From TrEMBL:
SUPFAM superfamilies: Winged helix' DNA-binding domain
Lineage, uppermost ranks: Bacteria, Pseudomonadati, Pseudomonadota, Betaproteobacteria, Burkholderiales
Residues of the HTH lysR-type domain: 81-124
Protein's name according to its UniProt entry: ModE molybdate transport repressor domain-containing protein
Domain of life according to the entry: Bacteria
Region (Disordered): 1-23, 35-58
A single MF term (Gene Ontology): DNA-binding transcription factor activity
A Pfam match: HTH_1
Entries under InterPro entries matching the protein: LysR_HTH_N, Molybdate_resp_trans_reg, WH-like_DNA-bd_sf, WH_DNA-bd_sf
Coiled coil: none
Compositionally biased residues, Polar residues: 35-47
Native source species: Paraburkholderia tropica
Length: 172
C-alpha cells in the first residue's frame, strides 16, 4: 500500500537543481536518508522501536525525490507520482485518495494542478454511470511514472559509492 509521508526539513539533503529545456521549469532533486519507516502514527522514541527491543540495528535507507518546478509551483514531484500510481491501481481519484490517507479534495486539486502543468493531461475521468465513474491514466500519465521512477533508480545507482559513504555516517 502506498502511503503519503512527510519528513522534517532537517532530514533532507538538497543536491541541486537541474535546468530543463523550459527556463521556467527546474527539476530539484532531494535525497533523504532514513533510518526507519515513516508512518502516520505516534512518533516512537529509539527505546520504543521493535529494533531496539531485539537489539537489531537498522541500516539507513536513501531515497531520491525529484521535483519539477514551474515557477514556484511543484508541477511534478513524489506525491503526484504516488497519486498517479494509486489512480492506476484503484481506478478513481477518490479510491486513490483513500489509499493514501488523503482527502478527495486534496487529491483532486493535485491532479488538476498536474494536468494544468502538462502539455497533455495525465488522467482522464468518466463521470457517473452505473459504476459511478472513475479515472484512468493517459499514456502521458504512464510515461510520467516510468520516467520518474527510472530517474530515481538511475540516480541511486550512479551515486552508490557516495550513498554507501553517507550511510556510514548516519546512526542506525
Amino acid at each position: 500500500m502506498l502511503a503519503r509521508m512527510t519528513r522534517p526539513a532537517k532530514d533532507r539533503v538538497q543536491t541541486g537543481a537541474l535546468p530543463l529545456a523550459n527556463p521556467n521549469v527546474n527539476a530539484n532533486v532531494t535525497a533523504t536518508v532514513k533510518t526507519s519507516e515513516t508512518a502516520k502514527s505516534k512518533p516512537q522514541t529509539a527505546a520504543e522501536t521493535p529494533e531496539a527491543a531485539s537489539g537489531v540495528r537498522r541500516e539507513p535507507r536513501v531515497r531520491f525525490r525529484m521535483r519539477v518546478m514551474q515557477d514556484d509551483t511543484i508541477a511534478l514531484g513524489p506525491g503526484k507520482v504516488q497519486l498517479l500510481e494509486a489512480v492506476r491501481e484503484h481506478g478513481s481519484i477518490s479510491a486513490a485518495a483513500r489509499s493514501l490517507n488523503m482527502s478527495y479534495r486534496r487529491a483532486w486539486l493535485l491532479m488538476d494542478e498536474l494536468n494544468r502543468a502538462l502539455e497533455s493531461p495525465a488522467t482522464v475521468s468518466e463521470h457517473g454511470g452505473q459504476s459511478g465513474g472513475g479515472s484512468m491514466l493517459t499514456p502521458v500519465g504512464e510515461e510520467i511514472i516510468r520516467l520518474y521512477r527510472g530517474i530515481e533508480e538511475r540516480a541511486a545507482a550512479a551515486c552508490a559509492p557516495e550513498i554507501a559513504a553517507l550511510r556510514k555516517l548516519v546512526k542506525g
